[in-house]
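Homework-ish question, so no full write-ups if that breaks the rules, but can someone show me the predicted structure for this set?
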Amino acid sequence: MPFRIDVEGCLTEPGRDDALTGEDLKAGLETLTPATRKLAEQRAAGSGPEFLQLPERTEDLARAGELAASLAETCDDILILGTGGSSLGAQALYALADSGYGNRLGGPNLHFLDNVDPHSFDDFLAAVDLPRLGVVAVSKSGATAETLCQTMLVLEALLTEVDESRLARQVAVITEPKDSPLKALAERYHLPCLDHDEGVGGRYSVLSVVGLLPALLAGLDAAALRRGAKEVLDRSLGGGAEERGSPQAGAVLSVEYARRAGLTQSVLMPYLDRLGYFGLWFRQLWAESLGKQGRGLTPIRAMGAVDQHSQLQLYLEGPRDKLFTLIRMSEAPEGASIPADLAEDPALDYLAGHSMGDLLDAMARATAETLIRHRRPTRVITLDDLDETVLGGLLMHFMLETVFAAELLQVNPFDQPAVEEGKQLARDYLKKGARESA
Amino acid sequence: MPFRIDVEGCLTEPGRDDALTGEDLKAGLETLTPATRKLAEQRAAGSGPEFLQLPERTEDLARAGELAASLAETCDDILILGTGGSSLGAQALYALADSGYGNRLGGPNLHFLDNVDPHSFDDFLAAVDLPRLGVVAVSKSGATAETLCQTMLVLEALLTEVDESRLARQVAVITEPKDSPLKALAERYHLPCLDHDEGVGGRYSVLSVVGLLPALLAGLDAAALRRGAKEVLDRSLGGGAEERGSPQAGAVLSVEYARRAGLTQSVLMPYLDRLGYFGLWFRQLWAESLGKQGRGLTPIRAMGAVDQHSQLQLYLEGPRDKLFTLIRMSEAPEGASIPADLAEDPALDYLAGHSMGDLLDAMARATAETLIRHRRPTRVITLDDLDETVLGGLLMHFMLETVFAAELLQVNPFDQPAVEEGKQLARDYLKKGARESA
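A: Not a homework solution, just the prediction itself:
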C-alpha cells in the first residue's frame, strides 16, 4: 500500500467515559461487512457507484491525452473554469506540479478560477496573454450559473484578441453529453468537448476526465493516479476491509466518536503544502456527502506546521469535539541543512545540522503526540513518498471512507438536496433585476 | 461607519427552544457595559491592551516608511518570513493589492512563506531572482524555530549570489528589542531592524509595523488602515457600544448561542476574494484567543460564492451547530455585462445583461436568506466599498469582538498556554536526532 494509517491514537482503554476501544472498532467494522461485500459485488458487475469503475478505464484517457497535447501546444497558461467538484479535484492534483511558483514539470501553468468575484477575474484577464491562453470549462449539468457567467466573459475577452475560428484551438469543455447552455456554447464555436460521466457526481469525479484532463495538461501521470486508486480499492473491498487502517475503520472512528463522545468536527491536517488542496477537496467531499438530516461532522482543513501557530491552542485546550487526522512523510526530502556557523547561537543548537524537512517532521510527530496526551483522538497517515500513485490512493481512500460513513449515518452520500433552494432564489433576484443595496 | 452589520437574522421570536430575542441581546449587551467602560478608560490612560493604542501611533510609521522605500528601491519581490500572527495580518492587508496575479499597485510583489515545507520553499527560491529579492523576517520573540530556520536558509541562498555587505539592503527584521537568535543574526549582518511592540501579541499586531511594513511595501495606505480602525474603536468604546452591530453584540451572539443552543462553530464567509486572508487572520485570532479551558467556538473561514458548492449542503441540513457571518458589498464594481448574444439561450435569461458582480451579490443575498429560513443564525456585514479604511475598521471590529467574547467566556484572550508543550517536544525530537520513520 502506498501509505500507512495508524489509529492507535484514537483507541482508549475501556472504562473511560469517552472510550472507544480496539474491541469497539472491531465490532464497528463487522457492521460494515455487508456494505463492503455489496460494493465489491457492484464493482465486479459494473453497477453501483460509478466512481468505482474509473480506476480501470483507459479509453477516456486516450481522448483526454490528445486534447491535452493539442491545448498545451498552443497555450502557455490554462484557465480551468468550474466550481466545487468541477475544480477542487483538479486543484488537488495540480498541487503535485506547482507550489504556487509555476509548473515545475515544464508544462503550461494552470490557473483555477472557481469563484465569481469580478475583482480577481478582471485581474487575471489583465495579467494573462490572451492569445496564448487555454481554457477548460467544466460543468456536469452544463447549467451552472457561475461557470456559464465566467465562460461567456472569457469568450468575450478572447474574441477581442483572437479570431473566432481560433477558439476551437484554445477552449475546451467538459460536460454531460446532452443539451445544455454550455453544450450550446461549445457547438456554436465548435469547441472540443469531453463527456462528463453522467453517473459520477462532481465530488467523486477527480479520477474521471474532470481531474485527469487538467492533470495531463500539467504533465502529470494520469495512469499512475488511477493505479494508486485501484490498489486502495482492491484492498479495501478485499482482504484489507477489516484492517485498522481501512476506509471502513476511518468511517467507524468518525461516526462512533460523534455518537459516543459528541464530536462535531473532523480535522484533516497534512504536514505537506502539496496536500493543501487535497484537504479542500476532502472538505467538499465529506460536507456535501454527509451533511444532511441533521447529521454529519464538519470537515476542517488545517495545515501543518503553520496552523500550530493558529489553531493548535484551540485543538488542545478548547472543547473536546474534534477527531484529528495528520498526514506526514516518513522521510524528509534531501534538503539543505542549516549551516552550523549561522546556528552557532546556543539557543539554536537543536536546529544546527538539521534540514527544514527534519523540523517539519519533528513538528508533525510532536503535535500528534501532544494531541494524544491531551486525549484528543488522533490518527496519523504516513507516506513514504508523494507522487501520483500515492495521491491516487489517498483520493480513493477518502471517497470510500465517506461512502462508508454515509452507510453508518444512514444518509445518501451522492445527493445534495439543500443547495437548490438558494440557487433558485439567486436566479429570482437576478430576474427581478434591482439590486438591494439597503 | 465604514460598514453596516445586520443581526436580525440571528434574533428569534420568544418561546422557541433555541430562542435568542432582541431583549436577550440587549440584556447581554448590558452585562458588557463595565468591560467596555474599563477598556475605554485604559485606552485613554494608555494602559491595558496595547493594540488599542496602535491606531493613533504615527512615529513608527515614519520609520517603517523609510525602510519600505529603501527595500522597494532595490527589490522586485519581497519575501515575508514569519508564521501565525507574524504573517496572517500582513497577508490580509496585501490581498487588497494582489488577487494572486501580481501587485496591481505597481509596487513589488509580496510573497508569504509561513510554513516550513522544504518543497515549496525550494520551489520559491528556484523561481525568484535572488539579487532582486527583499526579505522581511518577523518573529516577536526572535526565537521561533520555523522563522529562524527559514531565515538562515534564505540568508545562505542569498550569500551564494550577493556579497555579504549587500544583505543589509535586502533583508530586514521585525522583532522585540532584546537579545534573541534573530536579533543576533540581524546584528551579525547589520540588518535594519524594526521593534515588535512587546505589549502586542502576534494575533493583535496587524496594525503595528508587523502588518504595516508589508502594507507600505505593497503601496497601500497604512495611515488609512489605522484611520478606519480608530473610527471603529472610537464608536465601539463610545456611544455605539450598545448598538446591535457593535463588537459587543457580536460577542454576545456567539457566546449566548453556544450556551443556549449548543453552537460549536462560527463561520465567517466573505463574498469577496480580497477578504479570504482576512478570514484566515480571524480564524487565528478567534481560535487562539478563546480556545482554552474547554471553551471557545471553532472559527471557520468559508468563501462565498464558491463554498456554496462545497459547504452549503452541510450548513443548511447538517447539525444546527453554527453561527454564520456573511460579508458582502452593497454595490458591485462596474464590470463587463454578459453579452446578450451569448446568453440568448432561454435557460440563461436570468444572466443576460448582468455582470459577474450582480451574480455574486444575488448569491450572497440568496444564501443569507436561505440560511435564515433554515433557522441558522446569520448576520450580514455590508460594505459600501473595500479599501484600507474599511479593512482597518473590520480588523478592529473583530479584535474587539474577540476580546469581549473572552470577557463573556471568562478566559484570557492574550495568552496561548497550550502550544508550548508541542514546541518543546519537537525540539527534543530534533536534539535526539534520529528520525523515527516507523
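Now go work out the reasoning yourself. Hint: Chain B touches chain A through 126 residues (CB under 8 Å).
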